[in-house]
Amino acid sequence: MPNLILYQFPIYNTNNMQNNSNSSGKCPFMHGATTTQENAPTKWWPKSLNLDILHQHDTKTNPYGNDFDYRESVKKLDYDSLKKDMHELMITPQDWWPADWGHYGGLMIRMAWHAAGTYRTGDGRGGAGTGNLRFAPLNSWPDNGNLDKARRLLWPIKKKYGNKISWADLFILAGNIAYESMGLKMFGFSYGRADIWHPEKDIYWGSEKEFLSPSEERYSDLDDPSTLEQPLGATHMGLIYVNPEGVNGKPDPLKTALHVRETFARMAMNDEETVALAAGGHTVGKAHGNGDASVLGPEPEGASIESQGFGWINPKGNGNGSDTVTSGLEGAWTTYPTKWDNGYFDMLFNHEWELRKSPAGAWQWEPVSIDEDKKPIDANNPEIRQNPIMTDADMAMKLDPIYREISLKFKDDQDYFSETFARAWFKLTHRDMGSQSRYIGPDIPSEELIWQDPIPAGKSDYNPNQIKDSILKSGLSISDRITIAWDSARTYRGSDLRGGANGARISLSPQNNWEGNEPSRLSNTLDILKPISSKYGISLADTIVLAGNTAVEEAAKAAGFDLKVPFKAGRGDASQEMTDESSFSNLEPHSDGYRNFVKNDHVENAEEMMLNRTQLLGLTAPEMTVLVGGMRVLGANYNSSNDGVFTNQPGVLSNDFFVNLLDMNNKWNISGTNKYEIIDRSSGNVKWTASSVDLIFGSNSILRSYSELYAQDDNKEKFVNDFISAWNKVMNADML
């Protein structure tokens, strides 16, 4: 590869910041609008709740408009023609950015890897699903140095096929085609990733104020990699995984191995997958560090206008080819860097290695001695050969006992290595796409994999009214029905399209034992709903959702509105064998503001955690507001808590929560940690209790504006209709 796939040497130069003009001597007149990040109005109150993540990717930013559906558009693509053009691209060098050995495969593989490799299991964010590599901060991460050139090389392809192929799909397809062109049989590929049009605001990349700060800022204990701050998946801000020179730039392969294991686990990879990816990523291409990293120009987001959107421009020599500086390390890993083979393991185990410095001054491992014919040919001059290299992480594959055993197995069985890598690569590049039912295109694998959270299709040709009648006669309370339906659906994550009500995994381990699901109460409710499901031959998943819908309808009727909740049948029931328990543990709610639940004390407050869940559920700020208000009066609180139940008629879908929250005849007093009392100003009596999540809807200026809307006398019906709409959205979030 032209650069490191897994690990990148820090080339970021903090002195190279954008400075397009000198303000000295110029008129200080301002044009009236806030047009740069530094003048954002929210900077005055940094602790105020930021609701921006709930309305990112608004339709106003999307040039396609509401009528365009990429998932339908991509089905019209000439797949064979596109792949043919991509194969030609790999071996058609451009003078403005020459290809190593005349092949762009390594560069494209690194781009695909770095697009997908930001995925982390903790919250499902990151990954390749949105094409976010085009935007800040990823387009300017030190680890992504010179990937701006890879994207420009792809532009003629994107230009030709236009709306039928997204950038997000193109990034990953480029990696697949690159490996194919080098001789690897790929496991499969799916289209269907839709592009975003501005940087994502919801992803937390770390609290550091500069790239590549010491790792200690991310770890409670650097000697214990498990203490890496959640949900982060890299050792430094601006890296995909770990420092190629070693922990904090100090070579120590065994210590690096521990950090590799942790970061790759957070990307959903086990030890075998980790070794396969490390070896397969470094089987082809090279790292670039033949020069002085300190002279490089600024990253794309900080570059001047005339830079054409490029970053990291090297003023020395030609600035490319043999003068390319990206990672700081310099060299290829194998004898034949444009060929898929077992050369990585042969090179790693058949030589002794010692630490040396690259021309850019980075630590790298080079062979103590090596036959001339085993050295790779120079990427730009076929007349000479260069030493191969290994990073600290590569040496970890040899020295860590677990990684070593796996590596030797791969060394002795190239076919097994190739298959394992192809499967791991497929997982890496598709982990955030959800179930196989969402996949599009001719190269979809027939095998359904456990990490895709398989769910069998459920029955859909039935009359739901019969089931609803049985549920209403079952004796389950409105609270019981609301609670089980919500708890089943709330696990959905729009970030990686996992969780949700489909599959009825709330009845399976580990979900049936989660504290937030109230296991004992859940078990009793399931015992009543399962016979109903069996009687009518429908899925338990559908039955659970119908139970929640009946509760909403009953409560709405009690409020004077005879309305029906929309219902979409066809959910299926997953089995325990279809459920990767360790993987699903990442979906456990440690906080749920909708049910006034907080499992333990957290650094983040309950309101912030509610925003996080709201964004993962794909809800807007008004939808969050109306759902919280409705859930409180329906008695959905965890453990039957009375916090926030501002009503004298629980079980009625009224707007009482908002009316009483905003009543200035009441005052609020702190009574404990995240505990408040609502007190009648006249009598001094305590009327209700509340959490900070309840009161934020009356204290935050934005949320109060929504609360005021729903508290109006003329919006009682609107409140009920909006609650039903938002409820239905959550219940169906995971339905394709």
Brief account:
The chain is built from 22 helices and nine strands. By secondary structure, the protein is mainly alpha-helical.
Which descriptor suits the 3D outline? globular
Structural class designation: mainly alpha
What is the CATH top level name of the largest domain? Answer: Mainly Alpha
CATH superfamily of the largest domain: Peroxidase, domain 2
Please report which band the strand proportion falls in: under 5%, 5-15%, 15-25%, 25-35%, 35-45% or over 45%.
under 5%
Mean pLDDT: 94
Model regions low in confidence, pLDDT < 50 over at least 5 residues = 1-21
Distance between the termini: 37 Å
CATH architecture annotation of the largest domain = Orthogonal Bundle
- With strands numbered from the N-terminus, the spatial order across the biggest sheet is 7-8-9
The helicity comes to: 25-40%
What radius of gyration results from the CA coordinates? 28 Å
Tally the helices: 22
Largest sheet: 3 strands, antiparallel
Q: In the residues, how many domains can be counted?
A: 2
Q: Tally of extended strands?
A: 9
Q: The CATH topology of the largest domain is what? A: Peroxidase, domain 2
Walk me through the structure.
With 736 residues, the chain is mainly alpha-helical. The chain folds into two domains: 1-11 and 49-449, Peroxidase, domain 2; 464-731, Peroxidase, domain 1 (Orthogonal Bundle). It contains 22 helices and nine strands. A three-stranded antiparallel beta sheet has the order 7-8-9. Strands 1-2 form a two-stranded antiparallel ribbon. A two-stranded antiparallel ribbon has the order 3-4. Strand 8 (675-680) and strand 9 (686-690) form a beta hairpin.
